[in-house]
């Protein structure tokens, strides 16, 4: 069955490299501490998501970022880049009451 005309944009996007495959940690050398590389990777991946989207959907508790690449930082970056950022308010897992087990 030939693809419908509405599938064209999807096929074009699906054919691109994924954001994860493009993420690099600029400025890191091989001697960088693993924790530093991990933090830089969070930031780089968040920025790659923003660069690859038109609308960012963020599940966010509204708190300031707890480090580079945190939700607050990436939402701000998206808005700076002219992307629409839709924020769904959430509570941290520690704040959600869980039913007793058993």
Biggest sheet, in brief?
2 strands, parallel
Q: Can you count the helices?
A: 4
Cα distance, first to last residue? 52 Å
| Strand adjacency order, main sheet | 1-2
If you compute it from the alpha carbons, what radius of gyration comes out, rounded to the nearest whole angstrom? 18 Å
Residue runs with pLDDT of under 50 for 5 or more positions = 17-30
Per DSSP E runs of 2 or more residues, the count of β-strands stands at 2
* Helical amount: 25-40%
Strand fraction: 5-15%
User: What does the overall shape look like?
Assistant: extended
Tell me about this structure:
It contains 4 helices and 2 strands, in the order αααβαβ. It has 102 residues and is of the alpha+beta class.
What's the short story on this structure?
With 102 residues, this protein is of the alpha+beta class. It has helices at residues 8-14, 19-22, 34-51, 71-80, and strands spanning 55-60, 84-89. Helix 4 (71-80) links the parallel strand 1 and strand 2.
Features:
102 residues; alpha+beta; two-stranded parallel sheet; 4 helices; 2 strands
Strand-helix topology:
Layout (H helix, E strand, L loop, with lengths): L7 H7 L4 H4 L11 H18 L3 E6 L10 H10 L3 E6 L13
Parallel strand pairs: 1-2
């Amino acid at each position: 069955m030939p693809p419908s005309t509405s599938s064209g944009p999807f096929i074009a996007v699906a054919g691109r490299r994924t954001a994860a495959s493009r993420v690099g940690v600029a400025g890191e050398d091989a001697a960088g501490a693993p924790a530093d590389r991990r933090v830089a990777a969070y930031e780089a991946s968040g920025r790659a998501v923003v660069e690859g989207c038109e609308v960012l959907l963020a599940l966010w508790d509204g708190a300031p970022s707890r480090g580079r690449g945190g939700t607050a930082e990436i939402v701000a970056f998206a808005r700076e880049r002219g992307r629409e950022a839709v924020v769904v308010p959430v509570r941290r897992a520690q704040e959600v009451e869980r039913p007793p087990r058993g």
